[in-house]
Amino acid sequence: MGVPGKILCILMLLLHKSSQLELFNDKETLNLPLNYVIGWMGTLDDEKLVTELTIPGTHDSLALHGGPAAECQAWSLENQLKAGIRYFDLRVSGDDLKVVHGPISQHTTFYEVLNGINNFLSIYPTETVLVRVKHSNVFPDHVISELEQNTNSWVNVKTIPKIKEVRGKIVFIQKKSFHLGLPLHETDEKGDYKVGRTDEKKKKIIEHLNEALEACKHKTAVLIYSSGTGWPLGNLVKTPKYVAKKINPWLYNYLLQQNIKGCFGIIAMDFPGFDLIQKVINFNK
User: Fold this and answer.
1) What is the per-residue DSSP string for 107-132?
2) How confident is the model at residue 5 (pLDDT cuts 50, 70, 90)?
3) Which helix (H) or strand (E) is 267 found in, with range?
4) Among 6, 118, 192, 198, which has the minimal tally of Cβ within 10 Å of its Cβ?
5) Could you check whether the bond before residue 183 is cis, i.e. omega within 30 degrees of 0?
């Protein structure tokens, strides 16, 4: 068999293997393997910096309602945490900090999400959860003040914490008017979430992964998105779910071939399946 034939066989083997895995998920129910350890961060080196990890996350993490154009996830907060997600992207609105996706309410609030994460951390104290919050207007000052006094969160902007310092805590990521927590290097540029041709989106993700690999060396939180949607928003063909169904299996196979020294930072996904999340986690082993 010639070299091209061997390459084709390898690709076919990878595609067959990935087709048996859960790489895309749009079901509410979470089915965990019997031997699965939910607290996967328990084996990590205490002395490692949080910014030296490769962390599975979700984009618009609680966008569970609003129809095909608005929905980005299927699992609840609790199920995402149990499946291994350790980065949450929250969009909030108003003084009561309702969680939204654009104008659409997601029937929960920032405070309820924090309570849910803290409940999880009380059961799995080896873990840490990164949270980024974007307000549709300006984040209320009293909320910033409350969080600064909260011992269950890391809000220090001057020091990158070691894992041992933030086990059992929420680590905030900076976003515009929300100036608490870790500084952020964001690989996406304006408009990168718009998906025309899927192949172009894949090229963009590879560029961002390479950028993240370099940025991870500089002790800053790094974020890339594998998520996307057709443009204009509301395109009933290239919804977030449609894009994720195409991208997630490809992303798994791409990551499967990477042998890196360093980290990819935070990889925020839409509708990630259990095995895709585990692939991201495995870069830390």
Assistant:
1) EEEHHHHHHHHHHHHHH-TT--EEEE
2) low
3) strand 265-269
4) 6
5) no
CB 40 within 8 A of CB 82: no
pTM over 0.70: yes
Which two structure tokens, joined as six digits, stand for 266? 């935070």
**What average pLDDT does the structure give for the chain?**
91
Q: Does domain 34-284 have CATH number 3.20.20.190?
A: yes
**Neighbour-count burial of 176, counting CB atoms closer than 10 A to its CB (0-12 exposed, 13-18 middle, 19+ buried):** exposed
Read off the pLDDT of residues 67-109 as tens digits, 9 standing for 90 and up. Answer: 998 999 999 999 999 999 999 999 999 999 999 999 999 999 9
Residues making up the chain, counted from first to last: 285
Sign of CA dihedral 74, 76, 77, 78: negative
Residues 154-161: contacts with CB within 8 Å, 24+ apart?
A: 154/181, 154/182, 155/180, 155/181, 156/181, 157/181, 157/182, 157/183, 160/49, 160/50, 160/51, 160/219, 160/220, 161/49, 161/50
